[in-house]
Amino acid sequence: MFAVLIDQFWSLTIAGIALGFIYVLISLGYTMVYGVLRMINFANSEIFMWGTFGTVITSRDIFHYTQTSEPAKGFKLIFVLLCSLLMSMAVAGLTAVFVEFVAYRRLRMKGTNRLATLISAIGISIALQEVMRLLTSSRPVGSPRVLEKIILTEMWGANVRLDTVITIIAAAIIFFILERFIKLSRMGKAIRAVSQNEDAAKLMGVNLNRVITTTFLVGGLATGAAGFFYITVFEYTKFNIGFTMGMAAFTAAVLGGIGNIRGAFFGGLTLGLLEVYASAVLGTQWKAVTVFIVLVLVLLFKPNGLFGEAVQTTRA
Amino acid sequence: MNKKIKGSLAIVTAAAVAFGIASVPTASAAAKTYTIAYQGPLSGGEASTGIDEQNAVKYAAKLFMAANKGYTIKVVSVDDQGDPAVASTVAPGVGANKNILGVVGPAYSGATIASLPYYKAGSLALISPSATRVSLTDPKSPDFGGPVFHRVVGKDDLQGPALAKYATAGVSNAKVFVFDDQSAYAVPLRGFVENGLKKVAGATLVGGDSVPNTTTDFSPTVAKIKTSGATVVIYTGYYSQAAVFIKQLRDSGSTAVFAGGDGVFNQEFPKLAGAAAEGSKVTGVGGLAGISSKLEADFKAKMGVSSGVYSVEAFDAANIFLSGIKAGKTTREAMLKYVNAYSGKSISGNTIKFDKNGDISYGLFAGFTSKNGVLVNTGIVK
Q1: Same domain, B33 and B80
Q2: Which is nearest to B90 in space by CA: B68, B74, B105, B101?
Q3: CATH number at residue B244
Q4: Measured between CB atoms, does A105 come within 8 Å of chain B?
Q5: What is the pLDDT of residues B302-343, one digit of tens each?
Q6: Which of A68, A139, A230 minimises the CB distance to B268?
């Protein structure tokens, strides 16, 4: 039963961490919005899905890479990857702002109750998914291989591949930048102020609409970056991938303590590792069972998640 | 108030169009209109399969109308999303609409089971191009579809052994790892593959897994394959997941032979997987292009798209109903009798004749190997 885990421990661990970092970035999209609005952004999964298409379009349609073309090298490789990353972030960021305008802002202005916004968010997420389904004729979309998956080194019998290393390092950097932004920038302080007390923040002259839009934008940017890493590792997307990834990331956010940025970080990594270990030991059919039993157990003892503090009290 | 009436009128009209209740178009009063239906996933995650099959049905209707002046064939789209829950909500309407003489479909086995009660009650003949679950034509099973259910595709108990044989061909003392995608199609097929392996000399089953069909991270499965020392990996599931998996298997450095069933049989598979798909073996049913490139070119000219999965089967199924209409079988009862007694040639040259449970006598699976980004037919697996 444990033979696979012992034999392939480091391969699994590296894969789990890479997957975990993708979860971390998506769960930021949930956690940021929750921290400020106390509402779950159900459209975040589709924002992620749209983000993955940003990378595909950049490499396939702008730089004309195909399934059979040679992977990029040197400066061009860095340039294409950077453009793809920025494109994914831009697509997802704009989609998130669009979601805020359409599904949240107008309803908020009219003073509707929370349930109405919940439904409008679900509505727009279905619309986003169906639009992509129609655009892609329901077919899965393969992304050309821009980054050759070179085996950099062998570590304790596990292959350390370039794509996973880039994912882990770059995702960690992006997370760190966002965390600093929330902690130190003027806007970040405003976000935390709104999160703490909306009315008090308003009275202090904080522009509520700008803060909320920025929150969606930042969450969208992180989610879009996750879309880029997802494509880099898996080279595949489809109009319906959002649900599974979104569900996992939302679980990660709750596991870590929703509304808490550091919680998203540890929740994402824990979930990524838990998924691969459980699959290896018990069989992949037990993955979801294990993950959700762990989630229920954590919530039984720590109802606010592992790091049950909210955005407003986030410390560095 | 006015708005409400308008709204409900619109719904009624939409329903009338959807279920083919709308009257015969006055412009072609001389032509007689006959209605058949196609049922399968036309939206949702499996939509590409249904759209491909429905195109083949529409193509058959087009050819029929061109060859037989005075007939207008209407193909009603019944979208069950490949989902039993959806099927059980759309099937009552189809069952009650007496204009529909026959249904090509349902495409998926689970949706078929959910729809059957309504079609049995309405004596509505079904010819499925792709529902391969064994129990559908097993009189001892509660899923048994007789006398209305027929299929022009081979069952999974024929495919499983064929896949086991084809996957291990040329590999001496094959160590085989088999995994499924947890779907109603893949789990039984995996059982038939594992049974079939017992009859392959020298082959041993070294491991298995069951991976949800929404998975994109296959690293635990790849780890298991490496630990098991497998030289052949067989996947029962669908092509999009297979493409994601094979890339990850090759990136891990494994050179094991990869094989899949008809769910993987789709020209999109090598396109999605790129170089990683090279040499992969797939069992499936030959499409229109496999029969003749002229036929495929004509299909593309008339339908605007290439033919897809199960196009031959859907085309054959539609033709059975169309020949029934030509033979004057314009009630459901007459049509059902006609289909049960039908004997004719498939476009692939095989004789279509249903046994008393609704199965055809042939059902040979062809082997396909991925070469330079295309699945190439290597002939029937014997």
Answers
A1: yes
A2: B105
A3: 3.40.50.2300
A4: no
A5: 999 888 778 889 999 999 999 999 999 999 999 999 999 999
A6: A139
Tokens at B353, concatenated:
């004749």
On whether the CB atoms of residues B86 and B39 are closer than 8 A, the answer is no
Q: Identify the contact set of chain B against chain A, taking CB-CB distances under 8 A.
A: 43-48, 51, 182, 209-212, 214-217, 219-224, 226-227, 240, 243-244, 247-248, 251-253, 268, 271-275, 373
CA-derived radius of gyration, chain A:
20
CATH number among 3.40.50, 1.10.3470, 1.10.20, 3.30.1380, domain A3-313: 1.10.3470
Alpha-carbon distance A244 to A252, whole Å?
12
Closest residue, chain A, to B215 (C-alpha): A244
Q: Which two tokens stand for residue A138?
A: 């329901």
For chain A, what are the domain ranges?
3-313
Nearest by CB to B217, which of A19, A68, A235? A19
Residues B190, B268 within the same domain: yes
Amino acid identity for residue B325 in this structure: I
Q: Is residue B360 part of a domain?
A: no
Residues B31 and B130 in one domain: yes
pLDDT in tens, A162-203: 999 999 999 999 999 988 998 899 998 998 888 888 889 989
All residues of chain A having their beta carbon less than 8 Å from the beta carbon of residue B44 are: 138
Q: Does A149 touch chain B (CB under 8 A)?
A: yes
Per-residue model confidence (pLDDT) at position B262: 86
Do B28 and B95 fall within a single domain?
Answer: yes
Note whether ipTM > 0.90 here: no
Given a contact cutoff of 8 angstroms between Cβ atoms, the answer to whether A25 and A175 are in contact is yes
For chain B, the domain total comes to: 2
Q: Are residues B199 and B332 in the same domain?
A: no
Q: Domain span at residue B33?
A: 15-153+291-349
Task: For A150, name the nearest residue in chain B, comparing CA atoms only.
Answer: B251
Q: How far apart are CA A152 and CA A161, in angstroms?
A: 6
pLDDT per position as a tens digit, A22-68: 999 999 999 999 888 888 899 999 999 999 999 999 999 888 888 77
